[in-house]
Design a protein that fits this description.
There is one protein chain. The protein has helices at residues 15-26, 33-49, 63-89, 96-118, 124-134, 141-152, 168-190, 198-217, 219-244, 266-271, 278-283, 309-313, 315-323. The protein contains 13 helices and no strands. It is mostly helical.
Length: 328
């Protein structure tokens, strides 16, 4: 039987957003703290800390685990505010790219990973998930992910499932527009009215947001905001790439644990609030993150999401390593 996860471990997920906030307010080279932690420290710790199959029983009170998620919502908006503060207080802009990358890294976790958890719920949590996606300029992810990806995962109809011959960069360049088109088609089938067509409303909200930013805060902040959104979206699609790469099924075949890559790497699990247990998520989409399970028959990544990052950036090496792990 798997041991119970010490709940305090999920506080590790706050490290990146807090480091973004502190780095943006302190300024100077410290603005890149989150990037350094995410791309240097965490990949090493991912390997050192190893795997763990512990989880939290579904009967456990969810209040603490929801508190972790709502903390991310708070941190995300403070991080965006600190990002704007940094830009306005540094007229030379010599560290702007580093600030964009670090803030985008934080948005990738607090803005998208947490939103992914919340949009599978109802009421206030789903609304908060939409607010987070608003800060990523990627609101259509909600309808495409919930109504298309979960239905067609691993098939030719899912733009978020990478084929074995696809490299990461090719996948990102193709999946982003295809997911937007998919979202538009989904919402067109649900409503013929512009005002009740979610994809068009999402697009209108995002364009209006950028217009307001440009009018009141100028071009630098507007394009920097777009930049941090792009960094966050790249991280999201990197995650989509590694958790479905090369795993295929027929459209009429049922979804099984074998259609998603999982990872039990402790650091990735806790920092990304169990996003790595993706096989179980596709079997039970509404199961809360803390209770997601490891499946012995699911294909398993050779490392955590942080440890696999650099491997995935070089398609020939990624394919050579991962081909050995593909199920027959």
């Amino acid at each position: 039987m798997s041991s119970i996860t010490p709940r305090a471990f999920y506080f590790l997920s706050w490290i990146i957003p807090i480091s973004v906030i502190i780095g943006n307010y302190v300024g100077d080279i410290y603005v890149g703290t989150a990037t350094f932690i995410g791309l240097v420290v965490f990949p090493v710790l991912d390997l050192i800390l190893g795997d763990g199959k512990d989880r939290t029983p579904e009967s456990t009170s969810p209040h603490f685990f929801d508190f972790i998620l709502y903390g991310h919502v708070f941190f995300q908006f403070i991080a965006i505010a600190s990002f704007f503060y940094f830009i306005q207080s540094n007229p030379e802009m010599n560290l702007l790219i580093l600030a964009i990358l670090s803030t985008g890294f934080g948005t990738g976790i607090s803005g998208i990973v947490v939103a992914h958890e919340l949009i599978h719920r109802k009421g206030l949590p789903r609304f908060l998930g939409h607010l987070l996606l608003w800060t990523t300029t990627y609101l259509h992810f909600e309808s495409e992910h919930v109504r298309s990806h979960h239905r067609y995962v691993g098939t030719e109809l899912d733009p978020a499932s990478a084929r074995a011959e696809h490299g990461l960069q090719y996948f990102v360049l193709t999946t982003v527009p295809l997911q937007f088109i998919s979202s538009w088609k989904i919402e067109s089938e649900r409503s013929n009215s512009f005002w009740f067509h979610r994809a068009s409303l999402y697009l209108l909200i995002e364009i209006s947001t950028l217009a307001v930013l440009y009018y009141f805060m100028g071009s630098t902040i507007t394009f920097a905001f777009i930049g941090q959104s792009a960094a966050a979206v790249y991280l999201l699609e990197y995650v989509n790439y590694i958790r479905h790469w090369g795993l295929r099924r027929g459209v009429k075949d049922r979804v099984t644990a074998q259609i998603s890559w999982q990872s039990n790497a402790r650091l990735s699990r806790y920092v990304l609030v169990e996003l790595t247990r993706h096989s179980d998520h596709h079997l039970f989409a509404n199961r809360p993150y803390q209770s997601l399970r490891s499946h012995d028959d699911a294909p398993t990544l050779p490392g955590g999401y942080f440890a696999c990052f650099y491997l995935a950036q070089i398609p020939p090496i990624w394919k050579r390593v991962m081909s050995k792990h593909l199920p027959a």
